[in-house]
Design goal:
Length: 401
């Protein structure tokens, strides 16, 4: 052992064999280690000086109990109501006789013009959903997407039957088709094999949408981190610990990139069908990859449901993306929670700095405003949706002079 003694404030002893450091700072002692440049500190320690790792002297809180209060004093511009009317193209909120008046009151307060229920079903269920909306006093405030069952893919006649059923749903009033994430992840063919997103037997379904001029909103996979090891380097660790069913281990599920590749091949093979990639295709953390999709597939659009945390942590890059691709991004929320919409409006409309996100387990970081222009906001909030989904109401929108 070689010991170097400094006077007063700092005493360091190095055990060469174990790279152990005993450090005394301000009268306190910590046992720690020295690490090479670029190497992480061992578990339970953090870097206190370049290359020096040490544990805290006080008991460490759990990740759910550490809630530091920010001391940043910055301008605050809350946005309880969107600047322009909003089409929420991604919702699962159904309007019923019991809740429709409450929904309208909440929607009016938010400037939410149209709520699109993606869980419309098919057959009689879908018809009942549409008929209720059409018979209500608020028929221009709600719309419904149809769904398709993939049970039986691989049996003779499935494609024709599914296409016919979807045609009937659209004639009944569905303005689009929603595909849930089970396609590719868990859905099986009749022979027990995994049903791939780009299976050619599904093409007649996509072709119906092209022929009848309705979009397909498709949820593929989940965040890439859900497919990665559940360790402390995974930034979605808390969410996965709270919801273990969101984990997709490699021995049971295809990889994120496998699913994304299947999706993209399907998009490219059906160029006449308009596809809306739910949740920004889960590429909000990689705007370069998202841009590559839009550059090579003109029939593809993104919606922003449940991924606000991605844009709010990279506001300058996100603003550039939303500006460049202003004709290709739609507003969507997913979970209908009135108190959460203003967070979206604040990120999109202001340049506020360092404010909270509404759901800690999604993102432990703070958000920043993107400050989108009025032109971009209008397209994001309602103009793009009206163009991509022609079945939306044709009246009641701001003058476009």
């Amino acid at each position: 052992m070689r010991v170097s003694q400094l006077t007063g404030y700092f005493l360091v002893a190095v055990l060469v064999a174990g790279s152990t450091v005993i450090a005394q700072r301000g009268g306190r002692s910590n046992r720690g280690v020295r690490v090479e440049p670029g190497q992480p500190c061992p578990a339970g320690m953090t870097e206190v000086r370049p290359g020096d790792c040490a544990p805290p002297e006080l008991p460490s809180p759990s990740i759910v109990d550490y809630r530091p209060e920010s001391t940043v004093v910055a301008d605050e511009h809350l946005v309880p109501r969107a600047k322009y009317p909003v089409v929420d193209i991604h919702s699962h909120q159904r309007a019923t006789a019991d809740n429709i008046e409450r929904l309208i009151k909440e929607m009016d307060a938010l400037n939410l013009r149209v709520l699109v229920n993606l869980s419309g079903g098919s057959g009689q269920r879908l018809k009942e959903n549409v008929d209720f909306i059409r018979s209500s006093a608020h028929k221009d405030r709600f719309r419904v997407f149809a769904n398709v069952s993939f049970d039986g893919v691989g049996t003779p006649g499935w494609s024709d039957e599914a296409a016919a059923a979807l045609e009937e749903s659209i004639r009944s009033g569905a303005i689009g088709l929603k595909i849930f994430k089970g396609l590719g992840l868990s859905q099986q063919k009749a022979d027990g094999s995994r049903l791939k997103i780009d299976d050619p037997e599904l093409d007649p379904v996509w072709q119906v949408c092209a022929r009848m001029n309705v979009p397909v909103l498709i949820h593929t996979a989940d965040p890439a981190q859900f497919f990665e090891p559940i360790d402390y380097a995974n930034e979605r660790w808390l969410e996965l610990a709270l919801f273990p069913r969101r984990q997709y281990p490699a021995d049971r599920f295809p990889s994120f990139d496998t699913l994304a590749a299947e999706r993209d091949r399907m998009f490219a093979r059906n160029p006449k069908t308009r596809f809306i990639a739910a949740h920004f295709g889960w590429h909000g953390n990689d705007l370069g990859r998202a841009a590559g999709m839009l550059d090579t597939m003109p029939n593809v659009y993104f919606e922003v449901g449940a991924v606000l945390y991605e844009f709010g942590r990279q506001p300058r890059g996100a603003r550039e993306f939303f500006t460049k691709y202003q004709d290709r991004v739609l507003f969507g929320k997913d979970s209908y929670q009135p108190r959460e919409y203003p967070y979206f409006f604040r990120v999109f409309e202001t340049i506020d700095e360092y404010f909270d996100y509404y759901r800690d387990y999604h993102a432990f970081w703070k958000l920043y405003g993107m400050g989108l222009s009025d032109e971009v906001l209008k397209k994001l909030y309602y103009q793009n949706a009206r163009r991509v989904a022609p079945g939306l109401p044709s009246t009641g929108w701001p003058s476009e002079k």
